[in-house]
Amino acid sequence: MYNSAAIASASYQKPHRRGKHKIFIGMAPGVGKTYRMLEEGHALKQDGVDVVIGLLETHAREETALKAEGLELIPRKQVNCRGVMLREMDTEAILKRAPQLVLVDELAHTNVPGSQWDKRYQDVEQILEAGIDVYSTVNIQHLESLNDLVHRISGVVVRERIPDRIIDEADEIVVVDVTPEMLQERLQEGKIYAPEKIDQALQNFFRRSNLIALRELALREIADNIEEESVSTGQNLHCNIQERILVCISTYPNSIQLLRRGARIANQMNGRLFVLFVAPAGKFLSKPETLHIETCKRLCQEFEGEFVRRESSDIVSAIADISDQERITQIVLGETRRSRFRLLLKGSIVQRLMRELPQVDLHIISNNQPA
User: Which CATH superfamily is domain 244-365 in?
Assistant: First the structure.
């Protein structure tokens, strides 16, 4: 005879908990990401959390090495690479030790050939799957989607990169920020690189113009992260940190003028540009109209905007749907061509949009205004 209580007990399994991932991100080496991570590790240890260091790179920085004292360090493992013994993070030892929190430096690091994983972020994912929380560090230039942009800014090809999803899936992102002037000062004081490397660094990657651009990238990344979180939690869709400008074009020639004006607004506000064409439902465009819309699409691409085409018999509803979907903050429209009778009968598009999207700013551009 079966014991139902024993069966229930045997079949019950504790729900699996994935570890939480907190990433400390900065604009460049030396901003203090590792130091900040160690500070928070000490604070949590004082609160009774079981914290260990899985991997620490001090780069001979005395302040960082001193801050690590008092935290348990998991020794690195030896990996044989073509007859040479190299050291890597010992993920197996971390999993066996099973702390509540592990600190892992340099998330974008490429592991020694022969390691279980090619990249350190993959080790971190394995640790997270085991239910262990991870704090890690990374610089903004290691993000895959920013690789080409970082190269244009700094002239440096970043070889070690992480997928964007690692940032997107993180439970918390902390930007460790300092001014470019302060970072250059730290570099000159020998707190980042050895003395013989300082002048070369100042003339290349650590030029003030580079640091300003990289700092903006880091701050924008956290801004976008906050926006995405607000959407996923159902907060106000139009309360964005970065402006999002939607230009509504048609088959009329003044659409080129509208697009250029919207691109200037987006550029001045450092915002994202979207261009929307609502095609009448069930109606084919003439050849000149098709060519006109294709011209608008190419111009949108030149302005690094996103072109959206929808088919609908209700222009206002289509604009409102796209505005909600893309979290638009400003809309650029052309002056209406409707007759007074049609305005009285059906109402103004502008008035309807103001009712549908009360938190979105509308720009009405005159048809006679020069581009």
Answer: HUPs (3.40.50.620)
**Angle value at C-alpha 244, between 238 and 264, nearest 5 degrees:** 145
Residue 2 clears pLDDT 60, i.e. is over it: no
DSSP string, 279-300: EPTT-PPPHHHHHHHHHHHHHH
Top-confidence range, 72-86, 218-232, 241-255, 310-324: 310-324
CA distance 338 to 287: 24
**Phi, psi dihedrals of residue 71, rounded to the nearest 5°:** -110, 135
Q: Of the candidates 241, 266, 242, which has an alpha carbon nearest to the alpha carbon of residue 331? A: 266
pTM: 0.62
Q: Is the dihedral of CA 286, 288, 291, 296 positive or negative?
A: negative
**The domain at 21-232 falls in which architecture?**
3-Layer(aba) Sandwich (3.40)
Domain ranges of the chain: 21-232, 244-365
Name which of 11, 12, 34, 39 is nearest 23 in CA terms: 34
